[in-house]
Amino acid sequence: MAIEEARPVLQPEMLTRFATYAFSILTFAAGALLLGGGASVANAEPRHGLSAFGDLKYPADFKHFEYVNPDAPKGGRLAMIGTAGRTTFDSFNNFILKGDSAQGLEYLYDSLMTRAVDEPDAVYGLIAESADLAPDKKSVVFKLRPEAKFADGTPVTADDVVFSFNTLKEKGHPNYQLTLRDVEKAEAVDPSTVRYTFKGDLVRDLPLVVAELPVLPKAFYDKQAFDQTFLAKPLGSGPYEISDFKPGTYVTYKRRPDYWAKDLPVNRGRFNFDELRYEYYRDRTLELEGLKAANFDFREEFTSIDWATGYNIPAVKEGRLVRETLPDGRPSGAQGFFVNLRREKFKDPRVRQALDLAFDFEWSNKNLFFDLYTRTQSYFENSEMKASGPPSAEELVLLEPFRSQLPQNVFAEPYTPPVTDGSGRNRDNLKRASELLQAAGYGPGGKPLDIEILIFEKGFERIILPYIANLKRIGINASLRMVDPAQYERRLKSFDFDMAIQRYSLRLTPGVEVKSYWGSDAAKMDGSFNLSGISDPVVDALLTKMIEAKSRAELTTAARALDRVLRAGNYWVPQWYKPVHTIAYWNKYSRPAIKPKYDEGVIETWWFDPDKAAKLKQN
After folding, report:
1. DSSP state letters, 363-415
2. What is the dihedral of CA 388, 391, 393, 395, to 10 degrees?
3. Is 296 inside a domain boundary?
4. pLDDT digits over 550-597, tens only?
5. Burial class, 62, CB count within 10 angstroms (exposed 0-12 / middle 13-18 / buried 19+)
């Protein structure tokens, strides 16, 4: 999920394909595993996939995913602006906190199992042909396919899997370390068998987490330091390899004709382009002009004014450049101005509520966004986990033990952002905001309040400047700080900001990764997604309830209770969302009849159409 009107900086593309960590970003596979059978090597009942809260859609003998064309031709190129929002890169190491990694690196690596993106949380065997879960859920055994090979022809072994886990946990991005904390060990039973062992009681997610970890070649990292940035071409076992690049300008991947897994059911009809190319632009206006000039082929549009007015050109009217809206079945997630509670001036909730009152979304939507957006209210926006109405009886069971620690509005309708008439005359809300600030000791007769909003993209100024004007009307000395993208990311990673804009979305079945967004430990961990620095024992307890949930109903109840508590805390100023993809592309591609419900499907399921390309060239 990208930020509407701005680029996503913290989406965890390092895990995009393996676990949709998204953190995106960047999400871990989760869920109670309905596998049956034992898990010891002697008496296991191997299964071809893992799922959460339900049976697998695809049987053991399935031929291909429903949303692909198994006979799709291979060939051609897809050149694009990457969706992870990077405007530059200086590294091919996407597993650590350091550096700006290139986009598309996830296609270099395979994992033990891979997701089906028409199911909420199911994975099927890739490097591993089977998985066996112990009855107590404290261990899982994977059997590797003997044909699995890295791009240099060497076999993928259990030792590589063990090395990958140990290295990611010990030296990888802090979010790996947090999520893998309760994975006690990985051990090679034999060259083609790996056993993972878990500790503690919160083990529901862990078998799927490890199933989707990237498998790295130990031999490559014997010569290359894992914990440093590098531009040496990485070795992987996935469908693509790097063919050409210029740091900060472009990176090109070529499809491997000798890819070992190209004919497996999980890959049939996928990865059809001979070449994937990511172009890097520092200015979104130049991006759009580059698309119009056919300097690249595909772009997802995140700017409302450009979508409404920027495509009025003959190529669009004639159908050569296709402008299209695709449904997005994923949760829309949370986008907003995140307030950094690590700074003393934001610790008083009255200050944070005043910041919310000063933002006039209705005016912005009408005057800046062409009414394309809906106001975000929830951390689980556009999903069944969004809280609404008074708490249910099931939610009250979770909330009542903490009644004395919670604001009373948690036990009523959930907090929703203030609404205006869109006229720009937001007097009532601004008056309330001023009163709250004065009660907190700021404003006339009190302390001055200085707030800096950090951005890195010029196109966002038109949205923030009216908000800053409102903040000044209530006595806040607000300002805008523009930095380059690399500095922006560094400052977010180290929480060096007052307010910053970000969007993230959780998986359909949130699991252990939720601690990285709202947990107290993550608040103190550089690079986590807990931007606001939320550190609340009630929130921690509800996060545990989500992770412990034994059914989707229990998970939904815990998420709604958590949503009420988070929204009552005013940790952010919610912005907006739209549950669709707005895309534009040159008309030389075809795609399957069925779009995967939980993914665009462009890179993995579309294909180059020579007939369309020839017609386009003639025109």
Report:
1. HHHHHTSTT--EE---TTTTSTTS--SSPPHHHHHHHGGGGGGS-GGGGSSPP
2. 90
3. no
4. 888 999 999 999 999 999 999 999 999 988 899 999 999 999 999 999
5. middle
- Specify the long-range contacts of residues 342-346, CB closer than 8 Å, at least 24 apart: 342/495, 342/523, 342/533, 343/498, 345/449, 345/450, 345/451, 346/498
Q: Rounded to 5 degrees, what angle do the CA atoms 484, 356, 563 make?
A: 95
- pLDDT of amino acid 17: 37
Is residue 594 situated within a structural domain?
Answer: no
Assess whether 37 and 175 both reside in one domain: yes
- Among 495, 584, 547, 472, CA closest to 137: 547
Strands (E) located in 247-391: 250-255, 275-279, 298-300, 321-327, 334-339, 374-375
Structure token pair of residue 521: 């430990």
Domain count, the chain: 2
Same domain? 569 vs 428: yes
CATH number of the domain within which 32 lies: 3.40.190.10
Angle at the Cα of 383 from the Cα atoms of 95 and 329, rounded to 5 degrees: 70
Structure letter (DSSP) for residue 155: B
Q: Name the amino acid, one letter, at 607.
A: W
- Name the domain boundary from 158, 189, 223: 223
Report yes or no on whether pTM surpasses 0.70.
Answer: yes
Annotate 445-477 with b (16+ C-beta within 10 A) or e (fewer): eeeebebebbbbbebbeebbebbbebbebbbbe
What domain range is 136 assigned to? 28-61+105-223
Reading the block at residue 8, the tokens are 């996503």
Partners of 576 in the β-ladder: 375
Q: How far apart are CA 566 and CA 571, in angstroms?
A: 7
347-391 pLDDT, tens digit per residue, is 999 999 999 999 999 999 999 999 989 999 999 998 999 999 999
- Other C-beta atoms closer than 10 Å to the C-beta of 526 total 10
- Name the amino acid, one letter, at 129: E
Q: Which residue has the tokens 């591993």?
A: 128
